[in-house]
Write a structure and sequence with these properties.
4 helices, globular, mainly alpha, 111 residues, 65% helix
Length: 111
């Protein structure tokens, strides 16, 4: 995966998913979303999520994203869409349209 494609995919994830977290200052939706990301995708202890700042959470995920293998990037995109859609169904509309039914593999997340 070249850097242009990776950057383009990150920009889509950031602008349409993660940026909303910054606007809501870690609302319940985003707390639940990142708890799922750390628990189910990265397989990391959820007490290590840096809740002090939404920028810290974004920076950790971004750091992993730009080091990940190309197939891990797509798996993360699918996972993020599925997790977001599930939370939308559970918590009601959030103003975010995410597609359900993605499959994903688990990847190690090292900070």
């Amino acid at each position: 995966m070249d850097s242009y494609l990776r950057t383009g995919l990150w920009n889509v994830i950031y602008e349409h998913i993660l940026k909303k977290m910054l606007d809501r200052l870690i609302s319940k939706f985003w707390r639940d979303f990142f708890t799922k990301v750390y628990d189910k995708f990265f397989k990391q202890p959820t007490d290590q999520i840096p809740w002090g700042s939404s920028d810290q959470v974004r920076a950790q995920v971004r750091g992993w994203f730009f080091k990940a293998e190309w197939y891990e990037v797509y798996d993360f995109l699918e996972f993020a869409l599925e997790a977001g859609a599930t939370l939308n169904r559970e918590n009601g509309p959030t103003g975010i349209c995410l597609a359900p039914s993605a499959r994903y593999e688990v990847y190690e997340f090292n900070t």
